[in-house]
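From the methods appendix. Each design record in this collection lists the tokenized structure first, followed by the designed amino acid sequence. Records were kept in a plain field format so they could be parsed without special tools. The example shown here is representative of the layout used throughout.

RECORD:
FOLD TOKENS (395 positions):
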């Protein structure tokens, strides 16, 4: 730094005949004393603490106390990043519900497995629901298939455990909503596993997880026509469980079917239940087409016949084929990018089997890792078999 000295102010003007000079007032300030521009002002005495190799990041002051300080020069608010849409809810709303998933009313059938857990881990609920658009596409229909709860207060009149809340497909917001039973004093963590058919294009795809095959099929079936939806080798396939959506794209009538097909090597056996999207009546009586099992020359097939409609129908199928147990245990993990296996906290698909006499444990998971378990179990003995769907939680 340099000190300024010997500073002078000069003013050059021209003088002569015909020259006009304007007069202005000038304020003069007398400089009585000199000051250096690099002067050091004493703030307080201090010393270095936590010295390492002759250096320190910390100073301890003797008299002064420091505090956080924010100076606001204006009340204008500038939005830097608006991330509210990345969260399922926000503090600026007073709604007593939360929108969990957006629903496109033209997409059709969707199936949800949902877990609700209080942040203090004292309450937990697992629910399975299915959502379809109504036939006139003006509303959404919600079917609750299963619900189990632990921790909520009992209903004294029925001696049953109250749900932590309900799930409903809201037509106005086109969203799946969670409406808590106790919305004011409890915070919840919610996890969602969604299954849906994401295309109307004809095709088939298969993913193998251990001894089970997950098969997706989309096809169009003409009037009076029979199509094989699932075709498997009967020697290595013990049974098939299928979710099927059948749509008359002209009338927009839909039938959602769950069925189980088994065989004994020569005959097939099919058990099914369904519901439709006719919102004018509570009963489901508009079954589209006919399902039947078939086994021929060692080939097992699940067939569909368009026997009831005067239009072609769209059939979309998601099936689980139970294969030979000799294949072993398999796991599909929902991982993101390069995330290492067994670090996921979302969910996983897993196949297990057990061959035993009497009581057995076909599947066992760590209770510190898994809080909800949805199981599709086939139990077989000789030519007899049964299909069980279980929903298990713990506190």
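DESIGN:
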């Amino acid at each position: 730094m340099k000190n300024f000295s010997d500073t002078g102010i000069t003013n050059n003007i021209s003088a002569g005949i015909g020259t006009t000079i304007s007069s202005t007032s000038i304020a003069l300030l007398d400089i009585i004393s000199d000051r250096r521009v690099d002067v050091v002002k004493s703030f307080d005495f201090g010393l270095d603490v936590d010295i390492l190799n002759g250096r320190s990041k910390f100073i301890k002051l003797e008299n002064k106390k420091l505090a956080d300080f924010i100076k606001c020069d204006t009340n204008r608010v500038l939005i830097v990043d608006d991330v509210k849409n990345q969260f399922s809810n926000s503090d600026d709303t007073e709604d007593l519900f939360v929108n969990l998933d957006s629903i496109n009313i033209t997409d059709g059938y969707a199936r949800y497995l949902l877990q609700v857990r209080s942040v203090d881990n004292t309450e937990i609920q697992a629910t399975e629901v299915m959502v379809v658009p109504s036939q006139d596409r003006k509303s959404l229909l919600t079917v609750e298939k299963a619900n189990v709860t632990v921790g909520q207060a009992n209903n004294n009149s029925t001696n049953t455990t109250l749900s932590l809340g309900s799930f409903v497909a809201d037509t106005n917001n086109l969203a799946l909503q969670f409406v808590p039973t106790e919305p004011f004093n409890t915070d919840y963590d919610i996890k969602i596993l969604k299954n849906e058919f994401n295309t109307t294009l004809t095709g088939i795809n298969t993913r193998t997880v251990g001894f089970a095959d997950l098969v997706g099929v989309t096809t169009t079936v003409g009037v009076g026509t029979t199509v094989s939806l699932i075709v498997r080798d009967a020697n290595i396939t013990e049974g098939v469980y299928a979710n099927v959506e059948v749509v008359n794209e002209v009338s927009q009538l839909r039938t959602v079917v769950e069925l189980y097909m088994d065989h004994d090597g020569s005959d097939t056996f099919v058990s099914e239940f369904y519901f439709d999207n006719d919102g004018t009546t509570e009963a489901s009586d508009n079954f589209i087409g006919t399902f039947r099992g078939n086994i021929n020359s060692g080939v097992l097939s699940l067939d569909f016949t368009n026997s009831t409609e005067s239009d072609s129908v769209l059939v979309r199928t998601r099936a689980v084929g139970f294969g030979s147990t000799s294949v072993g245990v398999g796991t599909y993990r929902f991982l993101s990018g390069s995330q290492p296996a067994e670090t996921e906290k979302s969910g996983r698909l897993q196949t297990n089997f057990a061959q035993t006499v009497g009581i057995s444990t076909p599947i066992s998971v760590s209770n510190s890792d898994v809080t909800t378990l949805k199981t599709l179990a086939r139990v077989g003995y000789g030519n007899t078999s049964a299909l069980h769907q279980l929903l298990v939680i713990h506190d």
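APPENDIX NOTE: The CA atoms of residues 24 and 268 lie 112 Å apart.
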